[in-house]
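ingest -> fold -> write
write: protein_1
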Amino acid sequence: MKRIKNKRAFATGVITAAGALICAAVIAAQGFQPRLAISLLLLAAWSAVSLSAAFTQKGAAERAAAFTDERDRYIIQRSSHAALMISGYLMFGACFIGLVLYGVFKYAVFLTISATLCAALIAMFAALLCANIWFEKHG
């Protein structure tokens, strides 16, 4: 039996295979529908490619780790930190502008945009916090 070399591709292959099976079950239960048949074909092809890659290729992170040194890792960390800060500031600014526009024009769409951006900021903070805790514990 072959060993899994790329866990992400394997997970993608399993999830898309499950989606293809669900499409096949719906087609069997409700009859042929073109949109479901197209979805079935696309999901089956995606699953086959992902499962093939899972057993034959290493992931991008493993391949990149073989060619990076400490300076490259430092640059990657600094650039990803800067990108995270910039995207956070942009989202916060857009959220604040949406709230101001809602206060001025009283259109509910501005409040919806602001609430969505605020929820995305909270989710981004939670993901950052969980990643920080994970890396502190697992080094």
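write: protein_2
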Amino acid sequence: MCVMVLCSKGRLPSILEKLREMDIHHMYFYNTEEPRRLGVPFLSLLPFANLLVCEDCVEDSAGLHERIILVEARRMSIPVLTETTLTKIHAG
């Protein structure tokens, strides 16, 4: 499974802990705290993702770059889970 993660560096360990039991072969990480622009290479990896996980605040108040990723993932029918949803599934 290939997973894309959109979150801050501070939330990454928590998300990784929840993903630990999944059979993940590749993971792409986008740090939402970086002041850089979203690069085309990162977006070009989206079609290869099986799942997109984002920090709760990313989905609620996504900036332009994060919003592009979320919109494109949904357009491509890639499941998008928030950290809270992932926690519920993990506890499930």
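write: annotation protein_2
Helices lie at 12-19, 40-44, 56-60, 64-75, 83-91.
The radius of gyration is 12 Å.
pipeline exit 0
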